[in-house]
Amino acid sequence: MSAATTSPAPRSRVGARIGDGITRWVGRIILIVSIIFTVGPGILVVLLSFSTSEYIQFPPTEFGFTQYESFFTSSTWMNALWLSLWIALATAALSLAVAIPAILAIQRTRMPGRGVLLGLGVSSMLIPVSAYAVALYGLYSATDLLGTHIGLVIAHALLSVPLVLLIAGSALSRIPRELDLVAMTLGASRARAIIGITLRLLTPAMFTTGILAFLTSFDEAVLVSFLGGVGLVTLPKAIFDSVRYGIDPAITAIAGTLILLSAILMLVRTLIERKSR
Amino acid sequence: MTTIPTRSAARQARAEAAASTERRGSSVELTNVTKRFGSFTAVDDVDLSIAPGEFVTLLGPSGSGKTTILRMLAGFDVPTSGSIAIGGREVSRMAPAARNIGMVFQQYALFPHLTVRENVIYGLRMHRWGREEREARTTEMLELVGLAHLGGRRPAELSGGQQQRVALARALAIRPQLLLMDEPLGALDRALRVDMSEEIKRLHRETGTTFLYVTHDQEEALLLSDRVAIMREGKIRALGTSEELFERPPTKFVAEFFSNSNVLDAAEIDATGDQPVVTYGGRSVVLPAAADVAGIAFQPHRARVVTEREPRPDELLITGTVKEVLFMGMLHQIVLTDSTGKRLVVRTSGEDARRLSTGDAITLAVRSGDLVPLRAEA
Question: What structural domains and CATH numbers belong to chain A?
């Protein structure tokens, strides 16, 4: 027995066991801290949004719908909300209209320079948004696009096109090419095979990327500050403006609404993906 | 038990009825077909002529150009030069949809969002069949491949063999003049491959369509086809019936790649007289008259292990060292190297093989009549 405990092999096994234990605990702590930091602020802001206080204070003393009332009855907030929704919808539509044909061309044709095209398409991810904003400001002031809806939509689409290219691209690479080819031997024209088979199978991915493009635009505050001029006040811009003069507790209600909206969109996306399987 | 003969009889009758109304398979004619991708020549000046209703296999290692020929016949690729005719009609620049062909891929390529029935119906809808004919034809095709009870399933819910049956039913539903198959058994396991081979043979017989089959598997080519075209480096190196090419391989490549034969590289051939004389290992035998003999080969089961009985004068002797003896059920496979180090494989049912083991010296005898003369490679 004593020989066994003093031999080096069992000792190293004990060491390994202690090491395993430490790793496991460190892992758990990292996990718990991560969860607190990701979910915590959301919970906090939702709690605050039901406070009736005129200032943001924690913990809330009284609960009610005051903040939601002032958000939904204020024309400033409502105009900003509608503008944001429209810009985000247009951004989603534009990014899909540009990126889906592009990824089909990149992956499914022998077009020369398609590797370069993909590289250029995703390159906007590498450029810091503020740098982009400055450059676009120069371009837009020269082309009279400053403060226009279409200008802002194009700028937002620049941010979301890479997302569509990458996510729809990975979905497309999982759809076998042979499906189109088989459809063509069965009498379908090339266009009909692509639309009826490949694009049909790509629908869930297009929906997912559409939602991501929508949220990217809906949440975007930097580009709009540079390019929106005085006329275009989206919701993030309105929040920044309001914070500049003092904190309106209504922004907690806005935050609560946005969290709910995103959650619904993600839920719809999950349901669609599950159904398509 | 009684339902089986009844069903197959019904199936037989239906197939005969279908065959009488069905358009027969078409001829296929490739003339000087070349396909280049950049500087790479995938198919190099190929001529191939297939009779209506024939079953031809393109057999070759990967990169030999067989799939490129199939893709050009389907219309997925356009030949760089040369002409392709199906049923006498020039098609080399025609869209796939206009060719009236069927296509079956190795990975089945079933539409995952459609049910089995909807998959089969797809082509009929594209060809604007009427609703009733469409439904009847789909039922008929699913019965033909024995899957009528699974019409409502999605492809993902089927086994590999079932999926390939659906792919066959879908391709044949539109009554194609030509069915193209690209390694259709490649994704299936061995037992299923044999079952599906039978199924494909039966479908060929019952539909009368011309079948062109691409594979790198020699066994499938032997099992299925009327004729085999053996390809290498973009060219058809040999074309003939399975039996011809297997029993009398014309060249060294065909002997080794298709007929499992042993090529005696060390044999010396004297073709100056009326009949070629082969000298190997100090003995000479006379071959039947043949022109242009560049080498000789023999099949694994044509060699005899020499024990007591003295070799006859018309036998060539091969001495070597046993590397491995494999028991294969009905016979033993002996792997050996001859005196020049060349690897040879023989199969024997004799008792003598049982006593051999790795490292033993071995003497084989092959009769001159079993030696196959080989031409020089083209």
Answer: 75-276 (1.10.3720.10)
Residue B216 sits in the same domain as residue B324: no
Is A188 within 8 Å of B99 when comparing Cβ atoms? Answer: no
pLDDT band at A89 (very low <50, low <70, confident <90, very high): very high
Q: Which of B252, B272, B292 is the last residue of a domain?
A: B252
Distance, in Å, from the CA atom of B139 to the CA atom of B150, rounded to the nearest integer, reads: 11
Can you say whether the dihedral through the CA atoms of B6, B7, B10, B15 is positive or negative? negative
| Tally of helices (H runs) and strands (E runs) in chain A | 13, 0
Whole-number pLDDT of residue A3: 45
Q: What average pLDDT does range B197-209 have in this prediction?
A: 92
CB < 8 Å to A176, chain B: 107, 109
The average pLDDT across A133-156 equals 91
Locate the chain B residue with the closest alpha carbon to A201.
Answer: B113
Nearest to A179 among B95, B111, B174 (CB): B111
Q: What is the pLDDT of residue B305?
A: 85
- Contact (CB<8Å) A276/B105: no
- Structure tokens that stand for A239 in this block: 């929040």
Confidence class for position A4, pLDDT limits 50, 70, 90: very low
pLDDT digits (tens, 9 = 90+) for A24-54: 999 999 999 999 998 888 888 888 888 877 7
| Subunit contact B109:A185, Cβ cutoff 8 A | no
Q: Do A187 and B127 touch (CB under 8 A)?
A: yes
Residues 6 or more apart whose CB falls under 8 angstroms from that of A20 comprise none
Residue B327 main-chain phi, psi, to 5 deg: -85, 125
Q: Does A187 touch chain B (CB under 8 A)?
A: yes
pTM, entire model: 0.79
Of A179, A185, A276, the CB nearest to B96: A185
A191 touches chain B (CB under 8 A): no
If asked whether residues B229 and B279 sit together in one domain, one would say: no
Distance CA B58, CA B306 (A): 39
Nearest to B365 by CA among B297, B299, B319, B296: B319
Q: How confident is the model at residue A111 (pLDDT cuts 50, 70, 90)?
A: confident
A vs B: CB pairs below 8 A: 60
- Domain count along chain B: 2
Strand order in the sheet with B304-305: B304-305, B361-367, B315-327, B332-338, B343-348
Which chain B residues contact residue A192 at CB under 8 A? 126
What residues make up the domain containing B244?
9-252
Which chain B residues are closer than 8 Å to A179 by Cβ? 109, 111
Nearest to A176 among B103, B109, B122 (CB): B109
ipTM above 0.90, yes or no: no
The answer to whether residues B102 and B26 belong to one domain is yes
Instruction: Report residue B12's pLDDT band, with 50, 70 and 90 as the boundaries.
Output: low
Interchain pair A276, B75: CB under 8 A: no
Judge: B99–A197 Cβ closer than 8 Å, yes or no.
no
